[in-house]
Design brief:
about 190 residues; mainly alpha; 8 helices; about 55% helix; lysosome; glycoprotein; SLC12A_fam; membrane; cell membrane
Length: about 190
């Protein structure tokens, strides 16, 4: 119903437009937080069910043995605690470990299938790269190169110096002298 009654630009540019049409504007913010909490709790509970199944299959032995414990209603509450602890440990290191583990398992299960899926993924990545419109705000490859070699950023005429380079100090005139104007000649001694 909202899409039929509101303009397209409003829907695309103002994500909080419901605040202006709601009887009590803070209720929209409460709803956003409630939806976010619900989605994260759903992921936490779903992941704990998978962890519980891994524990029941004894895939990780004694490490996940406590995750087999369930409540009287059959809820794997220890697996939920395990999952919560794993979420607290998440970083780029654990993400990289997960990617490497996933690739290892892919090739152990089916080397041909893993190779085919990687080739397909690289082909799609190349297709997207070739079909992507030109960016007006830069590219990640340029950012990486410039980050690795500070002070080597190319400059266009009239552009500002990069943020990593401190500005050159401006010479101050001697006390009692008038400051020089840009382009003027210094007085002869």
């Amino acid at each position: 119903m909202t899409s039929f009654t509101c303009e397209r630009t409003l829907l695309k540019e103002d994500y909080g437009f419901f605040r202006s049409i709601n009887l009590w504007p803070p209720l929209v913010l409460v709803g956003v937080y409630a939806a976010s909490l619900s989605a994260s709790m759903s992921s936490l509970i779903g992941a704990s069910r998978i962890l519980h199944a891994l524990a029941k299959d004894d895939l990780f032995g004694i490490v996940l043995a406590p995750a087999k414990i369930v409540s009287k209603g059959g809820n794997p509450w220890v697996a939920v605690l395990y999952t919560w602890a794993l979420v607290q440990l998440f970083s780029w290191h654990t993400c990289l470990l997960g990617i490497a583990s996933c690739l290892l398992m892919m090739f152990l299960i089916s080397p041909a299938g893993a190779s085919g899926s990687l080739v397909l993924m690289l082909a799609l990545l190349g297709f997207i790269h070739l079909r992507a419109p030109a960016s007006s705000w830069g590219y990640i490859s340029q950012a990486l190169i410039f980050h690795q070699v500070p002070g080597r950023e190319p400059r266009r005429p009239g552009s500002h110096p990069p943020c990593s380079e401190p500005p050159a100090p401006a010479p101050l005139p001697a006390p009692g002298r008038e400051p020089r104007r840009p382009g003027s000649q210094p007085p002869l001694l």
